[in-house]
Automatic annotation (TrEMBL):
<dbReference type="InterPro" id="IPR052268">
    <property type="entry name" value="SAM_domain-containing_protein"/>
</dbReference>
<dbReference type="Pfam" id="PF07647">
    <property type="entry name" value="SAM_2"/>
</dbReference>
<feature type="domain" description="SAM">
    <location>
        <begin position="2"/>
        <end position="66"/>
    </location>
</feature>
<dbReference type="GO" id="GO:0007169">
    <property type="term" value="P:cell surface receptor protein tyrosine kinase signaling pathway"/>
</dbReference>
<dbReference type="GO" id="GO:0009898">
    <property type="term" value="C:cytoplasmic side of plasma membrane"/>
</dbReference>
<dbReference type="InterPro" id="IPR013761">
    <property type="entry name" value="SAM/pointed_sf"/>
</dbReference>
<protein>
    <submittedName>
        <fullName>AVE protein</fullName>
    </submittedName>
</protein>
<dbReference type="InterPro" id="IPR001660">
    <property type="entry name" value="SAM"/>
</dbReference>
């Protein structure tokens, strides 16, 4: 889970403007909140122009997908037996 300063750093790195770090602080954006941002929320926070919002949304999508892949890999590892085969629960 990212802290507000970590979110600010991510926004600057992926949004290209120092003002985005200030947005993270003024809106107390944690990692959980960052993953839930929408174009509307970015607009209400004052992120302009629209092209910057779109670029941030693309980067957020990449971040969400990366997170989902990591979670799926973790689940897959947990469901494997020592030989690397998936354990299939038996029904009945």
């Amino acid at each position: 889970q990212w802290s507000v300063p970590e979110v600010g750093s991510w926004l600057v790195a992926h949004g290209g403007a120092e003002g985005l770090a200030e947005l993270a602080h003024s809106h107390a954006l944690t990692g959980r909140v960052l993953l839930r941002l929408t174009e509307g929320s970015l607009r209400r926070m004052g992120v302009t122009p629209r092209s910057r919002r779109r670029e941030l949304l693309r980067e957020l999508l990449r971040l969400r997908l990366h997170r989902e892949i990591q979670e799926l890999q973790s689940i897959t590892r947990e469901e494997q037996d020592p030989s690397g085969h998936c354990r299939v629960p038996r029904s009945g």
